[in-house]
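Each lists chain and fold; for instance:
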Amino acid sequence: MTAQTTPTPPFRDPQLPLAKRIDDLLQRLTLDEKIAFLHQFAPAVDRLGVAAFRTGQEALHGVAWMGPATVFPQAVGLGATWNDDLVRRVGEAVSTEVRAMRARDDRVGLNVWSPTVNLLRHPLWGRNEEGYSEDPKLTSAIATAYTRGLRGDHPTYWRTAPVLKHWLAHNNETDRSVTSSSVRPRVLHEYDLRAFRETVEAGAVAGVMPAYNLVNGRPNHVSPYLSEHLRTWTDEELLVCSDAGAPSNLVDSEHYFDTHEEATAASLRAGVDSFTDHGTDGSTMAERITKAHEQGLLTEADIDTAVRRQLSVRFRLGEFDPDLDPYGDSKDFDTPAHRALAQEAAEQAIVLLKNDSLLPFAEGTRIAVVGLLADECKLDWYSGTLIHRSTPLEGLYDRFGAERVTFAEGVDRVRLRTSTGAYLRVADAVEAGDEVRGAAGALDPALLAGRTDLPPLTIDAAGTELAMVDWGEGVLTFRAPDGRYLSVAEDGYLRASADQPGGWVIQETFHLERHETHENGHLLKHAGTGQYVSVAADGVKVAAENAEIFELIVTQPGEEAVARVAAEADVVVVFAGNDPHINGRETEDRPTLALPDHQERLLRAARAANPNTALVLVSAYPYAVDPAEIPAVLWTAHGGQAAGTALARALAGDVSPAGRLPQTWYASDADLPGLLDYDVIGARQTYLYFEGTPLFPFGHGLSYAQFAYGNLEARVAGNEVTVSFTVTNTGGVTADEVAQLYVRAVEPSVPRPRRELLGHRRVTLAAGASTELTFRLPLSAFEFWDVAHGRWRLEPGAYELLVGASSEDVRVRTTILLAGEPAAPRPVVAHGLNGADFDEQRGTEIVDRTKASGDAVTAVEGGSGGLLFHDCDFGPGVTEVTVEVAGEGTVEFSLNGGPVLATLTSAPATADPYTYTTVRGAVSAAGVHDVHLKLRGPLRLARVGFSG
């Protein structure tokens, strides 16, 4: 008898087309199995031999949340390198480590949620550290490089599957799940969509993640833009993964839908394919999808579409072809090459903002190192665990010798005296347990907030002198002499149990509040719980009552130590900046551009003691500092594991700084628009439109060399503009230069950018060497979104090409003439006016026309607002104007700023904001005119029509 073999199912056959394999597996799944696949944690289907699958692995600048990994500079630091090739190599290293870690821990996912391509429109955004740039061209170039590295170069199989975050127009953390970004069509197409589009079109993106916020009144998780725009940019199946908890927000916080079944169905139909909600438990989402299907809100075909997109990613990751997967046996992890790349990236991210010949430091220089960031290697929310680390102080010790470097952190040393006269006391390391410190005396890397096996703080007559670190805005951390931070665990007790502030809710930050009646008395409020510190018989804890009244005794002001070491040195380096978990991070926007007062005091103390002072800002975002009295200023994002070594080499001149600012640094808060004003054109935001004088402009960065530009040539041929020029290193050292090409429309008919980045190139040149750079630009690079006709248009006329070292440091320029398409008036008789297609507005915002699609315009908070539409062609004449409106209010119609010609009043029978009525009025107009509309009251204007 011959044994029968089970035939290989078609979905296991790598010779078949991908679509046929997906279809075969899809038809083998039951409805319940398909529904279960739609949660972030898709279960295994044992009967088919299909493994469990997880969407989502954080990999913003290294593998995050999964333990030790190579930590590269923050994303904004990678953006500051302006180096596409470097960032691609970083992506390769990160995805290689993802694969290596996956081989030993199946919790590590291959669908990576990275990079973040939200534009850094507003520098007070708490998540500034996660983006690359305020400019869409630079952002898309860096994001494309990173995704290509993450994807790998195999024609069939992907090393990891990158998902872009966060779709769309997301730049605020304050009330982020309920605020709406009002984005006019020009800003939508020319700015916010552009970074996503160019990255997706490059072909290495597996999907996107919608953001928590709403856009034009509609949550991003039910955005029609997913189908209208995103999925038209590629032939690949894109996987849309929800942000964590966002599916429930549609009902619970946004109140956009009445039931979770309705919300889930709307998300799925809009294009969300994987629901990240309720942690690892997929049962709630499965129940919602099942009920939505039973209620007729979803069809099985809708479910199949979403599952097909997920399966497409899984096939591309080689899951069903383990013998053919070229990345399946990847073991490269923490290699010498990865360590060297982390240092190279950290060096290339350093931006020299100012240098009055103080840098680089000569051999033998006596250096005073001061400041809160001098001996720190800070991590952020999306970092992995450090395997290696170097602080700036350690880097300078290694480079210049410990005998040439002195250090003063500059924190205030304090004791906290209770109302009984006793002082807060921290058990020392021996008392706390030998496990707190390793063999070399360093803090155990497992020392984290939340530990309850260490003794809580107590009080005694002597107490413990604590380092009090003031991070600004009244936020304090306290540190024991051995480096342990005071932290509060779930049991409420204070312990010295954290190596750094961290976690989703920071348990290491406090506020000192003056007591109302007790002279010199303070209450110590714990930021994480909102409760006050109290003293009990069994230890110090936070509680809802019995708050202790403390007297703060400063035993040594930080400025004294700084002044002392500064006066004894040849030069001083002040390290200032932020802790990425404090005062600006996910869930928390910054209140100001200003450097914290305590750090300003340290800088002044150092400068007063020694005028040869350099300021090094180590931060996740720009600051407004006054550089007038400071001879040298550098900035770097938190640079990962090699930050200290990189900074020391830059200060010593071993490498010439060549990073460039990826966003404008403004001189003061007064230069900033409101955080929720997303109209970069109307509010004149970013270097594209800003008309003031920046502290440091977009693209700015100095060098230890000098560079000359020349031989600029531009040629228009067919559908392409070719630009070439030479760059020469006229300095005495080998250095990198970042050549930048910008364009300016000379006489635009609509507001256009003051200048706009067309291309960039980072090159290394030896002293005296030259290179010729060539850029080939499609004519589409010169187009703008014509709201009058709802499409891209190249305007004929002169365009100035600007070449130089920053957006403001232009070295050579030339002008080209482009034919283009002349402007045409709006054909309002044939097509009417969509309310959101205005040219200018005042006091209005864009809202959702319906829950499914379309835009309308309303006056802000129901007051009054105005819309202006230029060059409306009424032909031989019209006699009637109609407005399609919802809600109560009036629309006043006038031409060319003249008298009101018609007042159209809406008095709806229902309060439903999505029930529209048509209101008519008599007018007389012919020829071409500007249309002015004034909106009064809380009505929504969707459309204006005209008839003769």
Remarks:
- The chain has a mean pLDDT of 95.
- The chain has five domains: 30-316, 346-409+559-671, 412-557, 705-818, 828-947.
